[in-house]
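During the first year of the project, the team set up a workflow for recording each protein of interest as an amino acid sequence followed immediately by a discrete structure-token representation. This format lets reviewers and collaborators read both layers of information side by side without switching files. As required by the reporting guidelines, we include two representative entries from the current panel. The first entry is reproduced here exactly as it appears in our internal archive.
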Amino acid sequence: MSLGVFHDILSEYFQKEGIKFIPSSVGENFIMCQCMNPQHNDKNPSMSINTDNGDGYCFTCGYEVTLTDFIGECHELSNGAIEALELKATKNRIESLNEDYEEDYQEPIKFTLPKVFRKFNNTSYRGISPEILTKTGVYLSANEYHENKDFRYRVMFPYYQQGKLVGYEGRVLDNRKPKYLRAAGVDTKQVIYPYALIAEKFVPTLFVVEGVMDCLSLWELGYPAICNFGTEYNYGVNKLDMLSEMVGSLVVAFDNDEAGQRKGKILEKKLGNNMLVKNINTTYIGRQFVKSGVNDWNDFLNSQ
């Protein structure tokens, strides 16, 4: 598997300049190196540089670079050679975007709900009010109500989009593992959850959180939010197109742990650079919005 078209050029540059870096592993398309910001005394590699297009970003200070910011000086390249590098980097960015477009043509899977299920009409669940539970279609799956035994005795969170059921997941009512279980075949890169709440009107500021319970907890606190379905980049073209019309700005607010904070910074960078949502301002709020000692938004809600 390729290490990226600019991997060798970058490695040579770092060695010549005495910049500490971590070479890519097979299948990776990035190199971690010491930040190139002259104002940042970076003792450990905290800048990630994409070896396919040369774009770099420091996860500590936010400093950004592009390939031709530094590579021409190292190799004493002519203007024509530098332009060729820039053209190759741009081509790779476009190819990456085209890969996202291909996702939209996957054959959709048909999901159905059990014929009988129990709604949360007058009962709250883990601090979430009956009103929000009802609007988002949350229901209780008892033993006899779901054909798949793995989804029995779970609180179910169906994913509706434009009136169509596009998937669901369930949270256990006991100590079984896994705590959360998602239906097979759900394309979360195209799912906006909870679509029913966001589609009511234009949302000036929308928070992005890891899970469905975090998401509904923020709605309960008065903050519109969507579920990212984990911490990885999870945005296909249709999803980005819809968000660009429904939202003014995005605020990444992942869990208050090391993984959540690190991945939150990466997501901010990727969404901020995506041409399909260039009209949306994306920011990352870090730890300060989460109450000290509380890991996620549902814990925060229940601590109030």
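The second entry, processed by the same pipeline in the following quarter, appears below.
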Amino acid sequence: MKHICWVVFSVLATLARTTHAQTPSAGEAPADDEPSIAPEPPADSEPVLPPEHVGGGKPTTLPGEPSSTDQELTLDRLVLSAANRIDLNFFGDVSLIQLNEQKAAFTIGAVGFQVTAHLADHLVGRTEYVVKYAEGETVIDLERLYLEYRTARWALIAGRTHSELGYWNTAFHHGTWLQLTMNRPHVLDFEEGGGILETHSVGLTAMYGPKRGDSGVDLMLAVGNGHGRTIDVVQTGSDNNWAKSVLLRLGLVGIGHPALRFGINVGVDEIAAESAAVRPLLPDKSILELVTGFYLALRSEGLVVYSETYNILHHGGGQTWQLTDGFLLAGYRFGAVTPFGEIEARRGDGFSDPYYRPDPAVGSHSIPPANFVEGTLGVRYELNAWSALKVEVAAASFSDRTDYRAEINWSFGR
């Protein structure tokens, strides 16, 4: 009996404490001079968050940016719902694709999730992971995980991010719906998808730029883990080399047009030596990598232009290999419809570069970069603020063949 009374007394005491703590009702905005978080719960109870209203919502418009919703969005401008602490973004797509010498087929793209935690004024923690179907099984990949402290002009980022290469790589992440085209330019393909650049970085990044809506100089310096033993190995938990990769970007924002960005970037890394079992074309020799690039991005109300070119130089064992790849994508918005065209070309020594030709027994997903010229024509139609239809036809000419592609894609983001 004493035990029962003690339990009843404990329950009543807990209810009394809960009733005494005043929490805002659902949808009620907190006062301006109070923090927009729930009151702190008693130390001896499990934290319980107040209910939050999730509205239909529209894309978030930031100061100095156009308010129309028929333009491409980047993840820093898009919020599904905010519960004062957490923002969630969700992306996916499905296609009907026809490749030469293959049967037409329906396919699903990778499903992307981004979660942003608001930790304090100017401080957020962000993670992005992708769920995809590959080689007969479902795979979950952690793409980004980092802390970011950002003011009006400065930003400091620590963790695993997308490398600050030009514009595209950090504007359009793993959401097909975000970008104008269905696919990323080949030069910016992710490492595991046949890429030739280190599109992910694990380390520390510092940036300085003008306030949003202003014009001025854009500076970025990143220091991180270097290349893995093959291009598709992102060294997230360790580094096989004392030397760290360094990436520098210098650009201009809003010069000549408020929506224009252009600049250059330079990256340097020493790729650690590997045995003949991994790198048979250059065993037991380190490789010096020098990456130089130029980028231009114009996202106006009508005209849209993206162009980036990269040169990759590898030097090791008294030999040098170079590879140059660049693309130009242009489109024009007519209300909800945007026709566009893209051309990309690659030339160089990629097929003989020892870093891009590891031993097949290693099981690398890297693909020796062949020379090619590819042209793409397409049109994008905005079904509404959160979904788009795209139609593309493309032809890629290689030294020994020509590949063709016709594709219809329905993508969404929220």
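For the second entry, the following points were noted during internal review. The chain has one domain: 80-413. The chain has two helices and 17 strands. Both points are flagged for discussion at the upcoming steering committee meeting.
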